[in-house]
Amino acid sequence: MIEKYLNPNLVKIRLYDHNLPGFSIGSLDNWDNIKKSEIYLLDINVVLEEITIPKSFEFRKGNYIYKDSVWYYQRKIGPIEVNYSYSEISKVFTYYPGFIGKIPFIYNSFYPLGYEVSNIIIYELYKFGYIAIRSCAFRFNKKNFLLISPSFNGKSMLLDFLVNKENAEYIAEDLVFISKDCLVGVPWDSHNYGRNSGINTKSKKALDKVEDKIDYLIWFNVSDQELVQKTDLSIKNIYSYPLLESISYFGKSLSSAMMYFHNDYDVNNVIDIFTGFLSDTKILNLRTNGYNTESIMSLLRELSNE
Known about the structure:
Elements: E1 2-6, E2 11-15, E3 42-48, E4 59-61, E5 64-67, E6 70-77, E7 80-87, E8 92-96, H1 113-126, E9 131-133, E10 136-140, E11 143-148, H2 155-165, E12 169-172, E13 176-178, E14 183-185, E15 209-210, E16 216-222, E17 229-233, H3 235-238, H4 240-248, H5 254-262, H6 267-277, E18 282-288, H7 293-304
Parallel strand pairs: 2-3, 3-8, 11-16, 16-18
Antiparallel strand pairs: 1-2, 4-5, 5-6, 6-7, 7-8, 9-13, 10-11, 10-12, 13-14, 14-15, 17-18
C-alpha cells in the first residue's frame, strides 16, 4: 500500500497505486510522502476487495444505494459487473474488479474511481469547514496572491514563470482549500494535458498552509487585448462563480447522493467560509490577455511593493 499526504494535516490516503484516473485534487504522485501531523482530518483508504451488495437499502439515488452507513454502486459494463462502496464510518472506499481502477473516462453513468474519491474527499473536508476553490496561489515578495481564472488562460504558465524566474513560492496550481482560518494549497497536476510546465522544479519550497491572510485576490477577466486594465471589486462581486463551481465538482457522483441524503451542504456556510478568510483581502478585476506575462508581472511587482 502507498501512503500519501495532503499536508499539513488535511488528508492521509492509502491506496495500491497513485495513478488513479480522474483524480482531481492535484496528482497523487505529487502529494507528499512525508507525514507532517499525527492527526489528519480525513484518513481514507482505497482498497481492492470483493463486495457484497445488500438486497435491501435505506435510500437510493440513481445507481447508488445506502445501508448501515455504507454506500454501494453496482452496474454492468458489458458482460462485467462492477462494484464499489464507501463506508462513512471507517472511510474505506472499496472497488472490484481491479480493472475498473484503470478506466479514465465516464461510461454509461460509470465515473472514474479517481473522480469519485476526489469528490468524497472534497465533501468530507467540507464537513470539517474547508471548501474547494478552483484557483492558483503563490507568495511573491512577501505577499500572498490568489488568482481565479477560467481554464486555458495562462494561470499555470504565469505560476511557472513566477516560481522558476522570480523566486515566488508555490502554494497551488489549480485548487485550494479555504477555511475561516487558513488556506491550504494542492500539489500541481502533472497529468493536465497542455500544462507541461516546470512548476515542479522548485515546488519543494511550496507553502503548505497560509494562516495570516491572502493579500490580493485577482479575478482574471481574460480577453485578447494586451493592455492591462485593473479595477477594484468587493467580495460580494465575485463569490458566486467560484462557489458554484466548487459545488459542480460533485455532479452525479457518489458525493451528490451523500449530500442529498444528509442534506448538510449549507450554501450560507460556504459563503461565510469564503468571505470570512478573505475579509481583509484586496480584490481586483484584471482584464488582459492571460498570456501577457510581462505586463501581468509588472502589475504584480507594483502590488507586492505597496
